[in-house]
Write a structure and sequence with these properties.
Layout (H helix, E strand, L loop, with lengths): L1 H9 L1 H20 L1 H28 L2 H21 L8 E6 L4 E13 L5 E6 L12 E4 L2 E9 L4 E8 L4 E5 L5 E5 L7 E5 L12 E4 L11 E11 L2 E9 L8 E7 L2 H11 L1
Antiparallel strand pairs: 1-2, 2-3, 2-13, 3-6, 4-5, 4-13, 5-6, 7-8, 7-10, 8-9, 9-12, 10-11, 11-12
């Protein structure tokens, strides 16, 4: 113990210097958006590579449950194909939606890292700029919304999860089209909250919540969850709790959504502002 204390005293100036350097680095990354995105991209690529390798081992033992989910998804997709022959057979799927006047491309991806127990959770996907992935692209799964791409490098992309206290998604009540904002209060990974719903909206327990019309990156009508409970005081809704269709702790396969009309829509929105 005496030797450790003597060693610290001997190199205390150097240790203080290292501490201050680390503190400065953390402050720069946390307060500067450019540096934050840059280092997120760098660290995301490194951690993504090692997570990808370790996940290959763990995924081997999950093959049975993954195959069962894929079979269920394939059955549902076959039903859609019978109604609308707009799906291709490769991993890139283009959908021209003449009803909502938007065109989307879906690129399949695997999750190599997934956080769901923090206040600000992120995922890392095994697709990056080499596959045309860019920041601000939507990420969805068969069961609903996953998040939004925040940064990319050549082979990986970082996604701000739905389970992030700063996340906000346009969402609506499926039955009556009243819309609000989907947020997360940082508690259960199985629940989210719906706010800003108009007071005249008709709402009941079990109502389905889907993605709304007012998004340039998310297609309309993607399932999110169902109304679990809500309170209404002074003709205003409060604490609308949503049970998510997605169990964010057990997802493996997702789709990155490319919206070809995103730039045009946002350019018109910027003019109106």
């Amino acid at each position: 113990m005496f030797q450790i204390i003597s060693l610290i005293q001997k190199y205390k100036v150097f240790l203080i210097f290292i501490f201050l350097e680390l503190l400065s680095f953390i402050l720069i990354v946390n307060t500067n958006r450019y540096h934050s995105n840059y280092f997120s991209s760098v660290f995301g690529g490194v951690s993504g590579y090692f997570n990808y390798k370790s996940n290959n081992i763990s995924d081997y033992f999950k093959l049975q449950s993954i195959n069962e989910k894929l079979i269920e998804e394939n059955v549902s997709l076959k039903k859609i194909i019978n109604k609308n022959n707009s799906f291709s057979n490769n991993y890139k799927t283009k959908i021209t939606d003449t009803i909502y006047r938007q065109k989307y491309e879906y690129i399949s991806a695997n999750i190599v890292s997934n956080n769901y127990s923090y206040q600000r959770n992120y995922l890392i996907l095994n697709k990056g700029s080499n596959e045309g992935i860019k920041p601000d692209m939507a990420v969805v799964s068969y069961n609903g919304i996953i998040g939004i791409v925040t940064s990319v490098n050549n082979n990986y992309s970082r996604v701000m999860s739905l389970l992030h206290v700063d996340s906000k998604f346009n969402a609506k009540i499926k039955n009556n089209d009243y819309f609000g904002t989907l947020v997360w209060n940082g508690k259960s990974h199985l629940k989210a909250q719906l706010i800003d719903i108009p007071r005249q909206a008709v709402l009941k327990q079990g109502d389905t919540i889907v993605s709304g019309n007012h998004s340039a990156i998310f297609p309309k009508g993607i399932p999110i969850g169902t109304v679990d409970r809500f309170d209404k005081k002074n003709d205003r809704f409060q604490d609308i709790n949503i049970s998510l269709f997605n169990d964010m702790s057990s997802i493996n396969n997702v789709y990155i959504v490319i919206s070809y009309d995103k730039q045009e829509i946002e350019s018109l929105e910027s003019i109106s502002k």
